[in-house]
Amino acid sequence: MILITGSAGYIGSHCVLALLEKGYEVVGFDNLSVGHIETVEKLKLYGKDKFKFIQGDLLIENDIQKIFSNYKIDAVIHFAAFSLVGESCLNPSKYYRNNVVGTLNLLDKMVENNVLKIVFSSTAATYGEAQYVPIDELHPKKPCNPYGKSKLMIEEIMDDFDKAYNLKSVRLRYFNVAGADEKTRVGEWHTTETHLIPNVLKSALNENKTFNLFGYDYDTKDGTCVRDYINVEDLIEAHILALEYLNKFETTNFFNLGTNEGNSVKEVFDLCEKITGKKINLNIEKRREGDPATLIAKNKKAKEVLGWEPRKTLYDSIKSAWEYEKSRK
Ligand code: UFG
Predict the structure, then answer these.
(1) Residue 96 is among the residues annotated as catalytic for this protein
(2) Cα(273) to centroid(ligand 1), Å
(3) pLDDT of residue 156
(4) What are the Cα distances from residue 67, in Å, to 2, 25, 209?
(5) Looking at ligand 1, which residue's alpha carbon is closest to its atom 6?
(6) Is there a domain that residue 123 lies in?
(7) The domain containing residue 67 runs over which residues?
(8) How do residues 103-115 score in pLDDT, each as one tens digit?
(9) What are the backbone angles phi and psi of residue 322, rounded to the nearest 5°?
């Protein structure tokens, strides 16, 4: 049985569905502070007796022990975290406690219960400002916000746990995750939305809503920030390959997950107008604090070592996100 923390969230819920489709049995764990109970209900509907759910918090050790006492866990895929860069600057304590302390509690319980394999949701934010692009895994790691720092700390803790307790981890450093389940069962749903694609699409759905574009004066092809958008289903495929890698090689490793290609915010906006067939109200705002100009992944290592191949385009991601957004209206 595979334990998925953060199973009620955007990426975790896609992972549950993919594992279930591959025949795995899954236990989901989530405190529902960001994730939604409606998502859990959907997963239960599709998973039937192959999916169990425990509502609990990684800051409460008894909640974690409950999982290991009730189920025979073979490996963990750990998504549960707070992940908003801006919020992490305003409230670093929340991020260090939830992300670092919560993960430490999880790792301790794993070791105690002799579960020694974990796939971890890390981030491009561990690299900080890009010194060169595309960013490979050897790029210096100088995170410039508490969110990125919290994820880097966890990666370092995992290295120490490998040396001391033989706990093996695969850390996946995501670039910008986009899109939704093709069948619109789950998708990107944040109570307060800060991400680009859902925000543009919300403005497309509601003509009274204006999309605010942060910064038109970056040193990029059209003056707006460039990001590497990786489709959520492709991203999850890499998690399953990482799980298989851990089972086969029993060794720690880390990989970037991106497409090797960058798109500007304006390009994303234009593509959203094309896909939705709507004219979207656009307002140019000043730069958002902490946004680097360009982030593009080099994904060669994941391709070579995991045999991963991202298949979906930005068009596919926006299209599925749009279908999901409409289904929630
Ligand atoms: N943007 C807008 N308007 C919006 C939302 C976003 O113009 O309403 C712009 C941002 O300024 C940025 C780009 O769109 O230039 C992408 O912004 P997102 O918020 O969608 O994504 P980020 O690149 O800021 O963040 C993502 C992940 C983080 C991760 C980070 C790594 O969401 O979890 O990449 O750098 F930490």
Answers:
(1) no
(2) 19
(3) 98
(4) 11, 14, 43
(5) 196
(6) yes
(7) 2-178+229-257
(8) 999 999 999 999 9
(9) -65, -45
> Is the per-residue pLDDT at 329 higher than 80?
no
Task: Quote the tokens at residue 46.
Answer: 């599709």
The predicted model gives 156-166 an average pLDDT of 98
What would the pLDDT profile of 33-85 be if each residue is shown by its tens digit?
A: 999 999 999 999 999 999 999 999 999 999 999 999 999 999 999 999 999 99
Mean pLDDT of the chain: 97
Residue 94 lies in a domain: yes
**Which CATH number characterizes residue 92's domain?**
3.40.50.720
Q: Could you tell me what percent of the chain has a pLDDT over 70?
A: 100
Asked whether the bond before 134 is cis by omega within 30 degrees of 0, the reply is yes
289-325 pLDDT tens trace:
878 899 999 999 999 999 999 999 999 999 999 999 9
3-state helix/strand/coil string of 274-322: HHHCCCCCEEEECCCCCCCCECCECCHHHHHHHCCCCCCCHHHHHHHHH
DSSP string, 259-278: -S--EEHHHHHHHHHHHHT-
Does 183 map to a domain?
no
Which member of 10, 24, 127, 147 is catalytic? Answer: 147
- Residue bearing the CA closest to ligand 1, atom 5: 196
Residue of 291, 294, 296 with the most ligand 1 atoms within 8 Å of its CB, for mutation:
291
| Ligand 1 mutation target, pool 95, 152, 265, 286, most atoms within 8 A of CB | 265
Q: Tell whether ligand 1 has an atom less than 6 A from the beta carbon of residue 252.
A: no
pLDDT of residue 32 exceeding 80, the answer is yes
Q: Contact, 82 vs 151, CB < 8 A?
A: no
Q: What is the count of structural domains for the chain?
A: 1
Quick one: what percent of the chain has pLDDT higher than 90? Answer: 95
